[in-house]
Automatic annotation (TrEMBL):
Record has Signal as a keyword: yes
Domain of life, per lineage: Bacteria
Keyword annotations of the record: Signal
Signal peptide start and end residues: 1-23
Lineage: Bacteria, Pseudomonadati, Pseudomonadota, Alphaproteobacteria, Rhodobacterales
Name of the protein described by the UniProt record: DUF2125 domain-containing protein
Native organism: Albidovulum denitrificans
């Protein structure tokens, strides 16, 4: 949603660097430069009229529209005012309300249409610079964007969303040399959002919250020419974008409606970060937050469930385009010191048999993979060949600590993809501490019979080697012939090609 706000506002001046301009800008220079930039990007700009005053150019009834094979869009700006500041700079102010629409296309028939209304107060953009290198300083005291969409993530679920940005200021630098590069940095005192699926949706929900002390940095490279029809085509043409949103604190409240019951979630967030990168050589997504607390009220539970954690970090990266060679991928997850309230423990463990220590998870997996089919949809994948081939994988770290049990693991492998299913060739080592004590505790809690615990101990003993008082280790090896051995014993055999 925040990207939509930024696109509607700063995207209005994306054409600044697309044509030659003088160092001392005039209102006419700036408006013509913008129109040239829109045309170069495949957009059509129409206006109802222009009026010249001694120090300003006023454009009324501007409509920006564009269309690809499967989608289109239109932005309506009732008023744009270009004021000559007398020092080589031009100030741009906009109408208080701007409307935009985006729709899918099947032939010439419009499909699902999403509406965006931007309401702002006090937005000012000041343009300065030299040809091919322009700087846009902007002040945005208050902006509110309201989105209504008939679909949510491709499903026929109507949704609405509102986001309000307050106390904003920042700068964009736009350069051009065959491609347009726009780098933006901005700060906002707060960002407030409200999202909901209205009545009639299969599963209604609503959520609202506030992020304080927001910093947004973006970098966008747009190739010259009309907008391609698909994201894959845009990437092949050279499009790339990076976004990074950081915040100092925040809070979220969500209601999930299921039948006659409503589950409520209230969460408080410490400093956090949301970052993404999309480029021809791959994409990356990062979610991170510091100490956070959440209270979940479920009608079927007699007490609220309080959950806390000292930190969370989730990272995912990989290629986006099919290629003859494998590219790096990454999967990382860290949940640091997850705690549950004693009221919740009292229901799960009334006898206090289990340790109530904080739980933690750390996973670090990297490797290389190759896309065979299209990662972004629309392509055909044969049943005999998966769309992704993993060539190498490295489990750099696996650490899990919960209810008195510690699990640690690491390993590396390469994969042979010449058979009916991928065959790993490599080794891994796993160490488990506290498993026997946990089985004793589960028996004491009457969650497991003694016979079941004995069976699990025997199964564990078949594929582990004792270590210390209550620890076991396993060495796993997969060979070229397809055999998977655990401490020397064959556990599984992959079919050969």
């Amino acid at each position: 949603m925040k990207r939509i706000v930024q696109s509607v506002v700063t995207g209005l001046v994306i054409g600044f660097a697309a044509s030659t301009a003088r160092a001392d800008l005039t209102p006419e220079d700036l408006w013509q430069t913008m129109r040239d930039g829109y045309a170069q990007s495949g957009m059509d700009a129409q206006v109802e009229g222009t009026t010249r005053t001694p120090d300003a150019l006023v454009v009324t009834g501007a409509t920006l529209s564009w269309a690809a094979t499967s989608w289109g869009g239109q932005v309506e700006i009732p008023l744009m005012r270009f004021r000559d500041l007398g020092d080589g700079r031009v100030e741009l102010t906009l109408a208080d309300q701007i409307d935009a629409a985006f729709w899918s296309l099947r032939g010439k028939v419009k499909g699902a249409t999403s509406q965006v209304r931007l309401v702002q107060s006090g937005l000012r953009v000041t343009a300065s610079g030299v040809p091919g290198d322009l700087t846009l300083d902007f002040v945005a005291p208050e902006m509110t964007a309201a989105l209504s969409a008939p679909k949510l993530i491709g499903r026929d679920v109507p949704a609405r969303a509102t986001i309000r940005l307050a106390g904003g200021a920042g700068q964009s630098r736009v350069t051009t040399s065959g491609v347009t590069i726009k780098d933006t940095s901005a700060t906002f005192d707060s960002a407030t959002f409200d999202i909901a699926t209205p009545g009639g949706a299969q599963r209604d929900f609503k959520a609202k919250g506030t992020l304080n002390g927001v910093t947004l940095t973006t970098g966008i490279q747009t190739p010259a020419g009309s907008l391609p029809d698909t994201v894959e085509a845009m990437l092949k043409a050279g499009f790339r974008a990076e976004y990074r949103l950081q915040f100092a604190s925040g809070n979220i409240t969500a209601d999930l409606f299921g039948g006659k019951e409503t589950t409520t979630v209230q969460a408080g967030l410490a400093e956090g970060e949301i970052a993404s990168r999309v480029a021809p050589d791959g994409s990356r997504v990062l979610l991170a937050s510091g100490p956070s607390r959440a209270v979940i009220q479920v009608p079927s539970l007699p007490v609220p469930a309080e959950i806390g954690l000292d930190g969370v970090r989730i990272a995912l990266a990989g290629p986006m385009l099919p290629a003859p060679r494998a590219a790096p991928f990454e999967l990382g997850t860290t949940l640091d010191k997850v705690t549950f309230s004693e009221g919740l423990w009292a229901m799960a463990d009334p006898s206090q048999t289990l340790p109530h220590d904080p739980m933690s998870l750390h996973l670090d997996l990297t490797g290389t993979l190759r896309l065979i089919g299209r990662a972004l949809g629309g392509g055909k994948v044969t049943a005999t060949r998966p769309p992704v081939e993993v060539e190498t994988a490295s489990l750099n770290a696996l650490k899990l600590s919960a209810v008195g049990v510690d699990v640690a693991g690491s390993g590396t492998a390469r994969f042979l993809n010449d058979g009916p299913e991928p065959r790993p060739v490599g080794t891994a080592d796993v160490e488990i501490t506290g498993a026997n004590v946990l089985l004793d505790r589960l028996v004491a809690m009457q969650l497991m019979s003694q016979e079941q615990a004995t069976g699990l101990r025997l199964g564990l003993a078949l594929f582990t080697v004792p270590k210390g008082a209550d620890g076991v280790t396993s060495h796993i090896e997969a060979d070229q012939g397809g055999d998977v051995r655990v401490n020397g014993q064959v556990l599984y055999r992959f079919p050969n090609p």
